[in-house]
Design a protein that fits this description.
This protein has about 90 residues and is α+β, with helices and mostly antiparallel strands. It has helices at about 15-30, 50-60, and strands at about 1-10, 30-35, 40-50, 70-75, 85. It has one domain (about 1-80): 2-Layer Sandwich (Alpha-Beta Plaits). The chain has 2 helices and 5 strands. Helix 1 runs antiparallel to helix 2. The protein starts with a strand and ends with a strand.
């Protein structure tokens, strides 16, 4: 089990990016949350098996149609044991 904090920059607000991330996370069994950050961008905490988190990060790098990911910053975290994947507002 690993946990990462990811910050995504680019055109990722107003393009279904958070819902896309949640759908992919749930399909992969990854837990955590995703939210918009002021000034543009999205941040998320992802918890799960290394392979599934890696797959989700790959999907997040591509993003949904209409998005344009320019950068991703990752840092490892201590796992907290999230039970679901939520969109935070």
């Amino acid at each position: 089990m690993i946990a990462v904090h990811v910050r995504v920059s680019g055109r990722v607000q107003g393009v279904y990016y958070r819902a896309f991330t949640r759908e992919r996370a749930m399909a992969l069994g990854v837990k955590g949350w995703v939210r918009n950050v002021p000034g543009g961008g999205v941040e998320a905490v992802l918890e799960g098996e290394r392979k599934q988190v890696g797959e989700l990060l790959k999907s997040m790098k591509s993003g949904p149609t209409g998005s344009l990911v320019l950068g991703m910053e990752l840092s490892e975290l201590q796992a907290k044991g999230y039970e679901d994947f939520e969109i935070e507002y």
